[in-house]
UniProtKB/TrEMBL annotation:
Protein name (record): Dynein heavy chain linker domain-containing protein
Single GO molecular function: ATP binding
A cellular-component GO term for this protein: dynein complex
Compartment(s): Cytoplasm, Cytoskeleton, Cilium axoneme
Domain Dynein heavy chain linker: 161-492
Coiled-coil intervals, chain numbering: none
Superkingdom of the organism of origin: Eukaryota
Keywords annotated in UniProt: ATP-binding, Cell projection, Cilium, Coiled coil, Cytoplasm, Cytoskeleton, Dynein, Microtubule, Motor protein, Nucleotide-binding
Length: 492
């Protein structure tokens, strides 16, 4: 039993499918089954149950025309019922649209600013109803198309919605300004960025100004718009004070300077609101405030930039990977870290030279020193790693160790320092942690000094071998070392 037009259309399609396709297929299947039954009857006896089942099956086919007829009658009945219901709903919907249009017309008398919350609520509800009306229109048209009716048009909906638009825009902007005004004036001074306040007020003001002109033929509404515009203008008169003393970058040291200028102490706490600042009537000092406010902004920007740099390094980590079967690790993929480090070193030097850095001079000098130390550590670290990776396979050969005992001892010392440092770094891969490792740069420099001595000794050793056997001059150092490390195989 269909409960709506969509279900009725589904039923209608189903009935047509049964009548034109399914029943014909079933009739063919019954003929096939009949041929099987006739064939079987020559060889077996059918039980009473089987005969009853066959009887039911074949007789059902004869009942189908009546079933189809009943359903067609049901479809006709329900079609009439749903069509009547659709017409009634469309009639009611048209009455609603007329009521909405009347409600919009009545808004021409709304001029009391104290009633603004009520106006705004009614306009918002009406706007939502007119938006939802579009969905209802689509549903009506869908049903009309299903019944083959001409699709209804509802120009009054669009006309009403367009007419409501300016009213809602006025109420939205007026409500937004009054709410923001309350927030700005009663919040602690510096809670909101004056640039944001100025931008929002300017946008609302331009909108209200245009709407006031648009409602010129409706005096009550124009009066409401005028009232709001005048309140915005009154607020805008205080923007110089807001932009200077409302600066979020103002710290206690700046307020002490302000207090000296105005001649009485201004205590900065939660009770010091923008409203209280404006009540002090300090407009005559605005020119003097501007220099302090500008300085506070520059200092605040520098402090934020410094904090941002520190924060960026918190999550930076080294990629430290196991090196072959050596039992230790090597540093990998430092390009991104190096790029960030170069960028921050330049920024730190620029900030240090700023005339507004004085309140954070110690912090920026300390931070720059930290970055420079990290740069020095990275340079020495990568230099040690490169040489260690070259020499490690050479001095892992016992034959080389015997032939160059002094260099072997030096390499063992470097190898021990390297393994200790890499083990420490592998346990904590944070980039800034290496700056805290005790005497890391000194240990790396010691390694590099020893590695330079080892390489010099190695070159002297190879040069001596070439002098003994001049054909060795045709070999590279690596090839010669490979031969000399195999002294147990004379054929080499």
């Amino acid at each position: 039993m269909p409960s709506n037009t969509a279900q009725l259309m589904d039923l209608l399609k189903y009935v047509q499918n049964i009548e034109t396709i399914v029943l014909l297929e079933m009739e063919d299947r019954l003929r096939m089954v009949m041929s099987y039954i006739i064939g079987l009857s020559d060889y077996v006896f059918f039980t009473p149950v089987e005969m009853k089942q066959n009887n039911t099956t074949f007789l059902w086919y004869l009942r189908m025309p009546k079933v189809l007829e009943d359903h067609k009658a049901l479809v006709d009945t329900k079609s009439e019922e749903f069509q009547a219901d659709l017409r009634a709903r469309i009639l009611k919907f048209n009455e609603d649209l007329k009521l909405y249009a009347k409600m919009v017309d009545e808004m021409a008398n709304n001029g009391n600013i104290d009633e603004l919350p009520k106006y705004h609520k009614k306009a918002t509800q009406l706007d939502n109803r007119l938006i939802n009306a579009m969905e209802r229109i689509d549903a009506f048209n869908e049903e009309e198309a299903a019944f083959g009716f001409e699709l209804s048009q509802y120009p009054i909906r669009k006309f009403t919605h367009d007419k409501l638009g300016p009213y809602k825009k006025l109420y939205d902007n007026a409500t937004e300004f009054l709410q923001k005004y309350d927030e700005w004036m009663h919040a602690r001074v510096g809670s909101y960025d004056p640039e944001d306040i100025d931008g929002e007020v300017g946008t609302i003001y331009r909108t209200i100004y245009k709407l006031e002109k648009q409602f010129a033929d409706r005096p009550p509404v124009a009066g409401l718009a005028c009232n709001v515009r005048e309140r915005i203008e009154e607020f805008k008169d205080n923007m110089p004070i807001i932009q200077t003393l409302g600066n979020p970058g103002m710290k206690s040291r700046h307020w002490e300077l302000i207090s000296e200028i105005v001649g009485f102490p201004i205590i900065v706490d939660d009770d010091l609101t923008l409203e209280k600042i404006i009540d002090y009537s300090l407009d005559e000092y605005v020119d003097k405030f501007e220099a302090i406010s500008e300085s506070a902004t520059k200092e605040n920007n520098l402090e934020k930039a410094l904090n941002r740099m520190v924060t960026e390094w918190k999550d930076q980590e080294f990629t430290i990977l196991p090196y072959k079967d050596s039992g230790t690790y090597v540093l990998s993929a430092v390009d991104d870290i190096q790029v960030l480090l170069d960028d921050h070193l330049i920024k730190s030097q620029t900030m240090k030279n700023s005339p507004y850095i004085k309140p954070f001079e110690k912090q920026i000098i300390s931070w720059e020193a930290k970055l420079q130390l990290l740069q020095e550590i990275l340079d020495e670290w990568l230099k040690v790693q490169l040489t260690w990776m070259y020499l490690e396979p050479i001095f892992s050969s016992p034959d080389i160790q015997q032939q160059m005992p002094e260099e072997g001892r030096r390499f063992s010392a470097v190898d021990k320092i390297w393994r200790d440092l890499m083990k420490t770094c592998y346990s904590d891969t944070k980039v800034m942690s290496v700056v805290e490792i005790d005497k890391m740069v000194e240990r790396l420099k010691k390694c590099n000094a020893l590695l330079d001595l080892i390489q010099k000794g190695l070159n002297d050793y190879l040069e001596k071998k070439r002098l003994y056997f001049p054909r060795f001059f045709f070999l590279s150092n690596d090839e010669l070392l490979e031969i000399l490390s195999e002294t147990k195989d004379p054929t080499r």
